[in-house]
Amino acid sequence: MTLGDALARATARLAEAGVDSARLEAELLLAKACDDCARALLYAELDRELNDEQTAAFDANVSRREQREPLAYILGEWGFRRLTLKTDSRALIPRPETEIVVERALDHIRDVEEPSVLDVGTGTGAIALAIADESPAARVTAVDVSPDALALARENLELTGVNGRVRLVEHDLTSGLGDGNFDLVVSNPPYVEPEELLTLQPEVRDWEPHVALVASGATEAVARAATQALRPGGWLVLETAACSGERVRSLLDELGYDHVTITPDLAGRDRVVEGKWRDGRL
Ligand SMILES: C[S@@+](CC[C@H](N)C(=O)[O-])C[C@H]1O[C@@H](n2cnc3c(N)ncnc32)[C@H](O)[C@@H]1O
After folding, report:
1. Ligand 1 in contact with 168 (CB < 6 A)?
2. Do 154 and 44 belong to one domain?
3. Domain extent at residue 10
4. 275 lines ligand 1 (CB under 6 A)
């Protein structure tokens, strides 16, 4: 089979399975099957024959995608800010909106000499590793309740070369975050309401870990616990559901945070809520 035929057939199969960007995803899967050649180069070689091994690998991956397994799990890696992170079903796929969370977080530690940062619910390690990567003096503690997610974050830590400045800890945030002196607490907590789960795309609903998705009071728990974990004047930066910006703003106001603001994502939806811890202790 030629690359051109493979591409046409896979595009038709993925479109039939309900995949939105069928052509683009077929190209990415084909580029992976052709020993990770660049997607742009495929078009120069549409008449080239795939060998048997490449055909089998491509077909297997198209079948996985037909089952609506996320592209990032099949490719095994995904870009997040300056990093390429390993991605698989052990943790949530890092989202573009979370890059804005990192942007806001970095803004608050830019002038701190050796900022100490706590990332709550680290998943792949995306936020923690991006902060360590872009803020070379930062010391980051990253916690998660999921041993699977932490194992993946550990593999990413090895890959990203910020070893020594990021500490991964298995911890359940519902038991608090301890007394600390952090300059920044940052979190993308689970925030999908249980009744919303069935309305999500199959890629999310059927494949990503539910512990990473379903809200169980995590936002409130992090905001409350951060009042103990932050130093006076330290910042809390939280990702929120688009519909929850005002509710989380009120929560932070009630808990005693100052300068509470909401930052929208690129689609203009409420996405990040942040506040400065006022007195240090409630
Ligand atoms: C929405 S995901 C965010 C993952 C990653 N920070 C990101 O932005 O891509 C939420 C993470 O919180 C973790 N989590 C859920 N409940 C938790 C709890 N009670 N204590 C600590 N971590 C928790 C999940 O395992 C998951 O990795």
Report:
1. no
2. no
3. 3-67
4. no
